[in-house]
Amino acid sequence: MSSPLSEAEIIERYLRPLGGARADVKLGIGDDAALLELAAGEELVLTTDALVEGVHFLPGAPARSLGYRALAVNLSDLAAMGAQPSWALLSLIMPTAQELWLSEFCAGFAGLARLHSVALVGGNLSRGPLSITLQLAGHVPSGQALRRDGARPGDELYVSGSLGDAAAGRELSAQGPALEPPSAETAYLRERFEYPSPRVELGQALSGLASACIDVSDGLEVDAARLIEASHCAGVIELEQLPLSGPLRHRCPERAESLALAGGEDYELCFAAPAARAADIVATARRLGERVTRIGALRGGAGLELRAAGAPRAATVASFDHFAR
Amino acid sequence: MSSPLSEAEIIERYLRPLGGARADVKLGIGDDAALLELAAGEELVLTTDALVEGVHFLPGAPARSLGYRALAVNLSDLAAMGAQPSWALLSLIMPTAQELWLSEFCAGFAGLARLHSVALVGGNLSRGPLSITLQLAGHVPSGQALRRDGARPGDELYVSGSLGDAAAGRELSAQGPALEPPSAETAYLRERFEYPSPRVELGQALSGLASACIDVSDGLEVDAARLIEASHCAGVIELEQLPLSGPLRHRCPERAESLALAGGEDYELCFAAPAARAADIVATARRLGERVTRIGALRGGAGLELRAAGAPRAATVASFDHFAR
Fold first, then answer.
1. CATH classification of the domain holding A223
2. Which of A:249-308 have CB within 8 Å of B?
3. Is residue B46 part of a domain?
């Protein structure tokens, strides 16, 4: 059994060494607030997202995945702005302080933080029902951020990576550790849920190419509709074009499309770009080793239409709402 | 009975109009992240603090006070850095979305936000056990921030306002609404707990005067010891000098001193300054209408000593620790 730790021990042993080192951190963990230097000509980009036990993850979910995902979901928000991440604040509410849990949580966080040069510059520890709130700051050259509201009629609609894997992986993850060695397909789908890849470099590269961008967290149908609405356009998604992975098609042949449209937690980028930019977008994705798929187009009007085999198909899902009636 | 609200309704009706308006907010609530402009020659200052039901407040605590305090405790952190607050992100986890609770919470937050020109630029809503995490960003002229570690032997030690009122008020607040009209003293003490005054202007004015500063959140004895330790000094606090309000002395004559030393949640500033600055500090406090009291001095060595009637008195309290064994 691991023993409980004091607050000061948690900070010194786990949190202080957690993030990457950055020269623009003038004062990090240990004072009343952090002091940070933003380069001239850059705008600050701020986001926050929380993982709550019983809502975003089940009791007993692997701590390493939670540490990773707490950062990944916020990185995905910055990716959708075309921003470069820099500084994080972690607010951790937990019922007890167990070394094993903390070391796993921190291992998951630290690997991703170093990959993207994110420094942990502050935070807060409280006892209480488990929840993890991360605030992430980044920067973008002034005026260059990708927004939701810049798409125009005639633009094409794209999505990165593949969709629906995370939702299928979430179901597998909820079953707990596998009793026998998982198949490669099962392992792939679980990995896509537990360790999603925020498209940070792709988002930055799309600045200047894409006209609008959003990250797919609640499901493509909901998030694409948000982009289209913010841009005062109508949009069409061709369902045959949805990027579905082999493991998803094979494991969930009946449900692959609905998971891709509405499963959520993909943390892919959905973006629009003028048709004239298509070759640049393909070349950019190839250079970064990222998959990008054209899934539809925008036009004048309002609303998102789904089409299959050239014919309209009714939208099937409602937006996820934490407080739905 | 008020009816539950959808997430989108909460955002539109309550959160979007919540903060102050600021010209440096290029993009606020409604995209994947906020876009903000930091002036040249300024450093960014970031902090976060959480209020957790059952830990920082009791079930049924007045929502207006919670909205106010969530911002106030973070403003106090920025005050201790000498920073000017600017942008907030609110992460609200709550079991249900009740209009009455939300409108009270927002009223408490909004009044203080407008007073200090804080814009709410983003956030996150989740269903779960009630907790409120606020991240606050501010700015300070580069190199001018007040830190904990700048005090030197020979400096004098000060505290703003009065101490112990909040701890006494917390006990009164825990008793719930008064059955009969509260006395002026009771009302004063409750107010000091439920609506503390972060010393934002004082903190900024102390930049260039004070050598080190910390906000008193866990109690003077603990927080002064932190400042002294960070500055590699020893320190003495003269207990006769502690600023105790009339209501505290009258309501809690036996416990006033211990509440002032260890009650916590005062959100006053404890700071050090060279003796040559004493007149400037008095004049600054007077100009701002703030009370500032010299309570001791720093010297070479290590550790905090309490003295009463010229004789050493043992320290009586341990640091508050969320995860103490």
1. 3.90.650.10
2. none
3. yes
Residue B291 token pair: 């009370």
Prediction ipTM score:
0.91
Chain B residue closest to A33 (CA)?
B47
- Residue A17 corresponds to which tokens in the numbers above? 């060494």
In terms of domains, do A165 and A295 share one? yes
Domain check: are B107 and B188 in the same one?
A: no
Helix (H, G, I), strand (E, B) or coil at B226: helix
In this prediction, residue A14 carries a pLDDT of 87
Average pLDDT of the residues in A122-138? 95
The label of the residue with tokens 């187009």 reads A297
Q: Do A128 and B127 touch (CB under 8 A)?
A: no
State both tokens at A69.
């995902």
Range of the domain at A238: 156-313
Do A178 and A305 share a domain, yes or no? Answer: yes
How many C-beta atoms lie closer than 10 Å to residue B308's C-beta?
Answer: 13
Predicted local confidence at residue A192, as pLDDT: 97
SS3 content of chain B, % helix, strand, coil (to 5): 35, 30, 35
**Full-model pTM:** 0.94
Assess whether B19 and B113 both reside in one domain: yes
Question: Alpha-carbon distance A241 to A113, whole Å?
Answer: 33
Cα(B228)–Cα(A1) distance, integer angstroms: 37
- The residue ranges of chain B whose pLDDT is under 70 are 1-4, 316-322, 324-325
Residue A313, H or E segment: strand A311-313
Please tell me the distance from the alpha carbon of residue B89 to that of residue B110, in angstroms, as a whole number.
Answer: 13
- Residue A58 has a CB neighbour count (10 Å cut-off) of 12
Backbone dihedral angles phi then psi of residue B85, each to the nearest 5 degrees: -75, 150
A45–B34 C-beta distance less than 8 A: yes
B246 and B189 share a domain?
Answer: yes
Nearest CB to B91; choose among A48, A122, A323: A48
The answer to whether residues B105 and B215 belong to one domain is no
Is the pLDDT at A8 greater than 70? The verdict is yes
| H helix intervals, chain B | 7-10, 63-80, 99-115, 165-174, 184-194, 200-206, 220-230, 246-251, 256-262, 278-288
Burial class of residue A180, CB neighbours in 10 A (0-12, 13-18, 19+): exposed
The answer to whether B131 contacts chain A (CB < 8 Å) is: yes
Looking at the complex, does the CB of residue A223 fall below 8 Å from at least one CB of chain B? no
Residue written as tokens 């320190």?
A: B235
The residues near B123 (Cβ < 8 Å, ≥ 6 apart) are A48, B15, B29, B89, B90, B91, B92
pLDDT (average), residues A83-111? 95
Task: State the total domains in chain A.
Answer: 2
In this model, does residue A325 exceed pLDDT 80?
Answer: no
**Any CB–CB contact under 8 A between B208 and chain A?**
no
Taking the C-alpha atoms of residue A197 and residue A161, their distance in angstroms, rounded to an integer, is 9
Looking at residue A4, what DSSP letter applies? B
Q: Give the pLDDT confidence score for residue A319 in this predicted structure.
A: 53
Residue owning tokens 């009164």: B172
B46: nearest Cα among A246, A42, A221, A46 = A46
